[in-house]
Every structure is written in structure tokens, then in C-alpha cells.
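An instance noted here:
***
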Amino acid sequence: MKPSRSALVVAALVGLALAVPCQAQPSFKKRNSVDKAFLTKVGEAAVKAFRTKPANLELEDFKIALPRPTQQVIDLKMTWSDAAGKRFTSDVRVIIDFAEKDKWKVLDVEYKDNNVARIAGGGKRIESLKAELNR
């Protein structure tokens, strides 16, 4: 019996999925401090959540503010380029509740950039990014 075309396609996709290493996403759930390397991963995850195929992602600057005794606001400035090589700047704001020392929680994520292309499904993307950062 000859294998069907769809069975071969499924087998190829499974093989590809197993061959590509999984990239760990940043999580605030078990954090009690932040460093530049971790914030770079957070910024990359945010840009990738809103833009397709950003390249050359770099953390340009970050600021951490404490507006309340149990709340932290992290402002990230990321630079990246599109497939054509044009450079863009993204501003990411992450608001964190750290009332529980070993279980930080992302309350909100705000994203904006200077790319004129429209971002579709912004609200859903923010919610999925928050869930990912809180896992």
C-alpha cells in the first residue's frame, strides 16, 4: 500500500517541528529582579507579537519606574528592521505587579512603533503576550 500525499505532508511537518529547537520565551512568573538580558527577551517577544518577521532586534534603552509600592513600570525602546532592511523603533511598556515576591504578574502591555503598516488584532495580541509573559 502506498502512503497518501497528506500522510507524507503530516510526517514532514512533524519532522520539521522536531528538528527546529524551541525558543524559551521570557516569563515574569518566577522573577524577583530584572536584568538587561531578560529585558531584551521581553522586548523581542513584544515586537514579534505585533510584527511579522522583524530582524536585527536590539534593546536600545530601558527605564524602570516604581509608581506604587508594589508596582513596576518598565519602558523598553527596541530597534529592528523589516525584510527590506528598513529600520524601525518600538516603544514597549510593561506594567508589573510584584506584591508577591516570587510570583510577579504582568498587568498590562502597551506597544507602539513608527512603522506605518497597520497592526491587526492589537487587543488580542496584547492579551496573548500578557498570558505568555505570565506563564
